[in-house]
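Supplementary notes for students who missed Thursday's class. We covered one full example, reproduced here. Read the sequence, then the structure, then the short commentary at the end.
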Amino acid sequence: MDAFKRSQRKFRSLPRSIASAIRSISFDRSNDQKFFDTPSSQRRRNGISVDSYNELRKLILQVPLPTTVLQRTPTKEFLLNGIDLPLAASSYYILTLINQCSTLVLFNKDHEVCRIDLSHLLVLVYDMCWSSKVNLFLMAGYGLYSFNAQRRVFSTLEQFQLVRGEWIVSITCNTNSMYLLYSRCASRIECRSLFPPYQLEKQWPQKCFLRRKDFLARCIRVNEWNILALTIKQKNGEWRVDLFESTNCLRTIRGCLLGRSVPGMRNCLLIPYERSWLIINNCSLPQQIILIDEHGRIKAKTYVDKRHGFCNICFLGTEWIGMNVKDKLRLFMI
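Structure (token representation):
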């Protein structure tokens, strides 16, 4: 018998379409399985995919889109005394930079944890990401760096050396590899091991991801389904986001155009949000926060007041959105 039908009364308060969808799901149950197994148990895997379960869960809980959450008053705010664009989060920590990359600032959802002075190291960081595999924040710019949030230790990855005149504009990682997007003068994407000596696994020249009418790529991200996304500026000044297979840099989706940018601006960023992508378009007036789906189509958008300057966004687990704006870190509860 359908497990949900035995609890039909529980769904009377739900919208009819959602209740109907839940009742239509059947689950395979063996004699030794309990009704209250976890969502990831075999019972659910046999009856419904994890993706479908998550979609239904969002419908039931009516989880708002990030673009909706960002229109609210921030739940919490912390002073930064100036910001830089790099921003990343684990499920517990948020890391950002201030004072032209001379100070690392670490937060959790409740307070500022520490500040670390980097001015004596003369580092320049353009981007950062979190790796749950190595339990480190990884940073890239005029070198590769790491930050251990538990031990509060910043390190230069000495085994990795850049050619003189090159720098990395963006970094992202999945379970076993990191992807490095190089500057326009030597534009390419490298896939390297997450582990020392950070061996080069694959490399793609710009002709693999930029077309004849494209000018540059600014930000690279990979999601848990191993899809790569790139923000790309065209020669006519318009931006778009293209999606690629992470194994071979094969373009799967040429995204819709995001509009013409302010001349000289290159800070169109993005982060994965489940199978969708959240674009932080600092190059438009006013600044746009755009949610596109896995097919490159716009789902929703909102705006950020230009008085706040550039901004960046991260997800702290599944319950918080972080945004660094002007001289503050804002937290929004989802």
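Commentary. The chain has two domains: 5-61, 66-333. Residues 50-61 form the longest helix (12 residues). If anything here is unclear, bring it to office hours.
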